[in-house]
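hey
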């Protein structure tokens, strides 16, 4: 085999390898698929030969979801439309007893902004129905990329019983045993500001809106609807699929399933070896899971001294020090540092010895110069 033939074979092999790798790579899933526990297949009622807008009604148990183009291996843009809105309940501020219409209008453009008034703040709402109704689930709509509350508690005011007892929010809804009530107290604990768009009660007794998903579909492409994310504040990149407001060929589609997502992986956002579902501080690495006050929140995620700085970042976690001053740069804040690790400050005798040494050098230099001048004069 001569040199030219060898080079040609190598070139062919490289091209074949790159082509095969590209095809395989194009067929792989977006890695964000692994955060979802379940999915539905989206099947149109008729086959399409040109791009068309698919319209599919969602299920009651779906709150947070994404539309996925399986063929392209990408999440795609979609619009959510609410139909037949007729809610038989209202949301009130528990402190002022004022109705908050923004939280029941099925409009994701309206919201209320909630800001912390202390290091660990609480906001309470009351969900009131027109008559006692059987409720077993409450959904809360936040934006996917924003900060989110930490803990939710739900209390049945009519029957004086706890339905959800200080549970970490890992998804946008909470389930609880069915209760027949006309008033539920919803308590949300949080540290950072967040926007709340909707609070939805799930009940066969209450007439809620029917949600329809619209997206632009392409011929010979398979589509899926992934839902029930294990991460509340997830963020995925969606491919823009055109203006869905324009008149376009529309076709009905249906959800088939549900199926368990075989690519699902229990998330560990802080990479501390403890999965979020059982991590007492899921956003900050704390493999030891220390919780000295046994309140269910890891010490790393708390702010013991209430200075606005979480323990894991606080250089003096048990004594308030807003400035975080650390003069000797030893990692311990001045407020609780009993020892100055700077050499001269911690050992003042070194400073005095240095001054004496410098004086001796100066005196010695002067004596040397005088002696040398006298020697020259004598010569």
């Amino acid at each position: 085999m001569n040199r030219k033939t060898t080079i040609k074979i190598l070139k062919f092999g490289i091209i074949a390898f790159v082509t095969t790798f590209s095809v395989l790579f194009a067929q792989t899933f977006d890695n964000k698929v692994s955060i979802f526990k379940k999915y539905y297949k989206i099947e149109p009622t008729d086959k399409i030969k040109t791009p068309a807008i698919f319209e599919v009604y969602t299920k009651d148990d779906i709150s947070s979801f994404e539309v996925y183009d399986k063929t392209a291996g990408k999440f795609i843009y979609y619009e959510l439309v609410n139909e037949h809105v007729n809610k038989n309940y209202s949301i009130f501020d528990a402190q002022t007893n004022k109705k908050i219409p923004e939280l029941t209008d099925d409009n994701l453009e309206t919201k209320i902004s909630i800001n912390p008034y202390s290091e660990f703040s609480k906001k309470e709402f009351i969900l009131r129905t027109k008559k006692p109704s059987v409720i077993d689930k409450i959904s809360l709509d936040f934006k996917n990329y924003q900060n989110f509350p930490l803990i939710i508690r739900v209390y049945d005011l009519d029957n004086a019983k706890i339905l959800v007892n200080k549970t970490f929010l890992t998804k946008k809804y909470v389930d609880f045993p069915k209760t027949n009530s006309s008033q539920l107290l919803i308590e949300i604990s949080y540290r950072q500001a967040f926007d709340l768009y909707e609070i939805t009660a799930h009940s066969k007794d209450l007439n809620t809106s029917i949600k329809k998903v619209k997206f632009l579909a392409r011929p010979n492409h398979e589509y899926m609807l992934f839902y029930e994310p294990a991460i509340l504040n997830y963020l995925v990149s969606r491919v823009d699929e055109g203006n869905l407001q324009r008149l376009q060929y529309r076709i009905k589609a249906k959800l088939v399933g549900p199926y368990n997502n075989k690519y699902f992986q229990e998330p560990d956002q802080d990479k501390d070896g403890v999965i979020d579902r059982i991590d007492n501080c899921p956003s900050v690495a704390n493999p030891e899971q220390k919780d000295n006050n046994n309140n269910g929140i890891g010490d790393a995620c708390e702010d013991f001294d209430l200075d606005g700085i979480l323990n894991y970042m606080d250089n003096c976690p048990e004594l308030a020090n807003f400035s975080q001053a650390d003069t000797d740069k030893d990692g311990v804040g001045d407020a609780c540092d009993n020892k100055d690790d700077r050499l001269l400050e911690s050992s003042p005798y070194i400073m005095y010895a240095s001054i004496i040494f410098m004086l001796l050098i100066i005196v010695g230099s002067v004596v040397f110069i005088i002696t040398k001048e006298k020697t020259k004069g004598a010569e």
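The helical segments are 3-27, 343-346, 348-378. The radius of gyration is 33 Å.
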